[in-house]
Amino acid sequence: MHIPVSIQAGLWGLLAGAALVVGALAAWFIAVPQRLIAGVMAFGAGVLISALAFELMEEAYKRGGLDSTGLGFIGGAAVYTAANWVLARHGAKHRKRSAAGKQPSEDEDSGSGLAIAVGALLDGIPESIVIGLSMLKGGAVSLVAVIAIFLSNVPEGLSSAAGMRKAGRSAGYVFGVWIAIAVASGIASWLGYAVFRDFSADVVAATTAVAAGAILAMLSDTMIPEAFAETHNAAGLITVVGFFAAFVLSKLGG
C-alpha cells in the first residue's frame, strides 16, 4: 500500500518528536546525574549545529541563493528570539534546565506552566518543519535530518522533564506536554511538505533558512547554556563530538 508523501512526512516528524517523550520517560523513572544530562545536551547541540550547517543552510542556498537564505536565516533567529524573550518574562526562561530551583513552580510564578509548554513547542516546531521540507526533493526524507533531530530531542526532553519534576509538576502535565509536542511535530512536518510543495524555490529556501536560524538561536539561548552550566570545560569537547557524529552521518548519507 502506497502511503502519500505528506503522510510520510507527518510520520517522520512524529518519530523525531517521540524522542522528547523517550527523554521525559528516562528523566521521570531514572535518577539521571546532572552532569550526564548536561553532557547529552552538549552532544545534542553539536548534532544540531552540524545538521543545520551541512543540511539546512546548504540546501537553502542551493534552492534560493544567498539573498533568500540570508534573509530567512536572520529573520528566523529574530522571530525566535523575540518569542523566547516574551516567554522568558512569563516563567519559561529556564525551561530546559534540569537542576532543582531553576524552573519555577506554578505557585512561584502563576502561568509559568503554560509558558514552559508553549516554549517547548516553540523550540520543536522549526525542526519538524525541516523534515517535511526535506521531502520536497523527490519524496525521500533526509535521514540525516531525522536522526539529528531525534538525537537532539532525547536530551531536550530529558533535561526539561527533570526540571519540571523538580519544580513539582505532575506526571500528567509533564507527559501531556511532551506527547502533545510530539504530535504537533508530526503535524508540522506534514505542513512542511503539504503547504510548501507548490511554492517557489525561493520561498522554500527562505523557509528552510528561517527554521535553521530559529534552531541556532534556540541552541544558543537554551541548550548550550544548560550544557555549560554543569559540564563547564568539557562542554566544548562534547559539542564537537556531537557535531562530528552528525557530519559523518551527512557524508555517509550523501
Please characterize this protein's 3D structure.
- This protein has helices spanning 5-29, 34-92, 112-134, 143-166, 171-194, 201-231, 234-253.
- The chain has 254 residues and is mainly α.
- α1 (5-29) packs across α3, α1 runs antiparallel to α5 (171-194) and α3 packs across α6.
- It starts with a helix and ends with a helix.
- The model has no long low-confidence stretch (mean pLDDT 81).
Q: What is this structure, in a nutshell?
A:
The protein has 254 residues and is mainly α. Helices cover 81% and strands 0% of the residues.
Features:
254 residues; mainly alpha; 7 helices; 81% helix; 0% strand; globular
Termini separation comes to: 28 Å
In N-to-C order, the SSE pattern is HHHHHHH
What is the mean predicted local confidence, pLDDT? 81
Largest sheet: none
E-strand count: 0
Share in helix: over 70%
